[in-house]
Amino acid sequence: xxxxxxxxxxxxxxxxxxxxxxxxDEFIRxxxxxxxxxxxxxxxLLFSILQKIAGTRFALLGAFQFGFxxxxxxxxxxxxxxxxxxxxxxxxxxxxxxxxxxxxxALLVPVGFLLxxxxxxxxxxxxxxxxxxxxxxxxxxxxxxxxxKRILIVGVSGLVSLVVVYGRAYASLxxxxxxxxxxxxxxxxxxxxxxxxxxxxxNFPFGLLENLFQAVPRGYQGVRWxxxxxxxxAWLGLELVCLTMLTVLGWQIMLGVAAAARRSALxxxxxxxxxxxxxxxxxxPLVYRDPMYDKMWLLPLAALTIAATVAFRFSSSxxxxxxxxxxxxxxxxxxxxxxxxxxxxxxxxxPQLAEARRLASVVNRRDxxxxxxxxxxxxxxxxxxxxxNILNLPSSTRQETAEWLALAETKETAEHGAxxxxxxxxxxxxxxxxxxxxIMKVPYSALDCYRDSSVIVQRFxxxxxxxxxxxxxxxxxxxxxxxxxxxxx
Length: 489
Hints:
Blueprint: H1 3-16, H2 24-54, H3 56-67, H4 70-76, H5 82-102, H6 108-121, H7 128-138, H8 144-172, H9 177-184, H10 190-193, H11 198-213, H12 223-227, H13 232-262, H14 268-288, H15 298-314, H16 317-347, H17 353-362, E1 368-371, H18 375-384, E2 389-392, H19 398-414, E3 419-422, H20 429-437, H21 448-453, E4 455-462, E5 465-472, H22 481-488
Parallel strand pairs: 1-2, 1-3
Antiparallel strand pairs: 3-5, 4-5
Helix pairs in contact: 1-2, 2-3, 2-5, 2-15, 3-15, 3-16, 5-6, 5-7, 6-8, 7-8, 7-14, 13-14, 13-15, 13-16, 15-16, 17-18
């Protein structure tokens, strides 16, 4: 929610020192520079947290390992939104560590404020609060009354900050006070992308491999897809080795955290329950939404690094050597896999830029565009899509799609515009039914008339797959989408 605000502040500050953007390319580079700054700050804050827990040596290793993880390298060098939230989350945890180490309860007040800023910048960073609760309970020497007092201070501070920050933001968006509380709990597309399914749990370890050091093929779509991918045996062998190594490392972390729990002033079961529940809560969005989603891995990876540092502090010397060696291997794998690709991406021209320019040369503001989340239309929408009537089909229900098409036909006819379909009419029935049909409830046959009535005006390739841009001239005489959908059921 606050990401556009941070962009405005950053680009405004750049303009004051003579570094303002003159065109869209410079604007994107300024946004990338902001993300790089926020990522660097987050890594520095994490290092400071780790140093306070286990000293400089392991803190350096842990901070470097986190900093070179694929999820962070990716978002530290692009213009997406999650890194600002990550920075505020790490700032909250660093101040929390200072407060716990000195027993200065006044320092807990800004923790609540920073948690709200983190959540308002990127929603899943709200789960930093469970890490805060875990720290309040599990810090050495803590008693239950002290832990509850800490949580109460953070909670009151956070509640006041939430009213101020979200109230101001919602008011600027035109949301009336009576609806603000309900809006706070709205999760976009949750009814379609959310849910617990066996496939998500199966793909969780593959998501971890991908977001640490890209140990799955590009375009990974699940275990069944992997079995039929090129060099499947080599990939499966590599992933088996990597998962075995991570399992051993994870087990050692669990043993170290258990050793820390035994030294707590609180009952062991309580400490273990709080620590385990916190880690599960931080990872929950991945199994609920998408275990391959890189943005959602940022906080879990940071939490795992903190847990490993706690384990390092309270483990035996032999276990420490194993943890240090394991993290050193992780760091080497990350640098070897992620840095070359990041450098290559930096040196080459922005992918699909030429195709996005071609699309921009065809579509004007009188037109309407219905699209998928492919690279070309994503880039076009970000740079040239302002003011164009756009429908993102993968995040739209059958009802929303039908209403949009009906309105677009009327509006674009009146304004002498056309409707363009980017990529979405290229899918075969199997690919369509897997998500748009099964999850979004838009039958494949419901768009048959649009497939027959539209003409191809452009072709482009994304990842070796051919895609088309189709134009539908007005009027189409296609039956309303809802009527066709009902007949096809």
